[in-house]
Amino acid sequence: MSKKLIIKTAEQIEGIKASSILAAQTLKNVEPFVKVGVSTKYLNDICNQFMRDNQAIPATLGYRGYPAETCISVNDVVCHGIPGAYTLREGDILNIDVTTILNGYYGDTSKMYRVGQISEYAQKLIDVTKQSLAVGISQCKAGNRIGFIGNAIDKYIKNYGYSIVYEFCGHGVGLKFHEEPEVGHNRTEDLGHEMVPGMTFTIEPMINAGKARVKIDKKDKWTARTIDGKLSAQYEHTICITNSEPYILTDLDNEFPVPKSVF
Q1: Is residue 133 pLDDT above 80, yes or no?
Q2: Residue 258 domain-assigned?
Q3: Torsion angle defined by CA atoms of residues 187, 148, 76 and 106, in that order, rounded to the nearest 10 degrees
Q4: How far apart are CA 6 and CA 11, in angstroms?
Q5: Neighbouring C-beta atoms of residue 55, cutoff 10 Å
Q6: Quick check: 44 pLDDT over 60?
Q7: pLDDT tens per residue, range 18-37
């Protein structure tokens, strides 16, 4: 990851915003196809076609050898699930993660989907994970430190007995796929960079129902699963720091407040 913190100009933020909106639209477009009997490869292809139909390309394809246009992580897969022949079953939960490159700018987002009727156990994990993202976003104000995000998420998650994956983190994004700063989701004493207007980065907490650790598939070298086989969930948004409230660039459905003026 680059060590240089990139503060974006207003023009660059507009480009990142456009790519972020397209990433969010990609997730919304695939939603009707998430149902029993559909393969994760088919969902990947739907996303890929939508991105390319809208003059964007998927950032994941070929990135460090990654073989697909999306990451689709089902049940105990924490992240980097490679789409393939697996067909969705009643009660499955899954995360679809897309990163678009539009006119050279990157937008990165992911969300959880439900297949048919899911268990209360799974639904609670999804709800708490989504709220943990909101808790992290609440710390995104100029003058705060990056470490405030993980500290707030950690404090919130402890109320539910879940664990937070520490082997992956959020990251700067916009002009490159992965930039500074790294955005941890766990408690830390190293509070890191001060947030300043023009910073763009992802917050993407991965919350496990069981233990925090993951295991990487020895064959494909990408798929990260919970070490105990229990469920995992994740939500992700791309955030821009402003002079007022955080600007959630991938928030297509206005689930979080958006300031009237970026600068």
Answers
A1: yes
A2: no
A3: -140
A4: 14
A5: 10
A6: yes
A7: 999 999 999 999 999 999 99
- The number of domains in the chain is 1
Q: With respect to residue 167, please indicate whether it lies within any of the assigned structural domains.
A: yes
Which tens digits make up the pLDDT trace of 72-119?
A: 999 999 999 999 999 999 999 999 999 999 999 999 999 999 999 999
Q: How many residues does the chain have?
A: 263
Within 69-213, where are the H helices? Answer: 120-137, 147-157
64: left (phi over 0), alpha (psi -120 to 50) or beta: left
Which CATH number does the domain housing residue 93 bear?
3.90.230.10
**Under 8 Å between Cβ of 193 and 156:** no
Q: Where are the beta strands (DSSP E) in the chain?
A: 56-58, 71-74, 77-79, 93-102, 105-114, 163-164, 170-172, 179-183, 200-203, 206-208, 214-216, 224-226, 232-234, 237-240, 247-248
Whether the full predicted model's pTM is greater than 0.90, yes or no, is: yes
SS3 197: coil
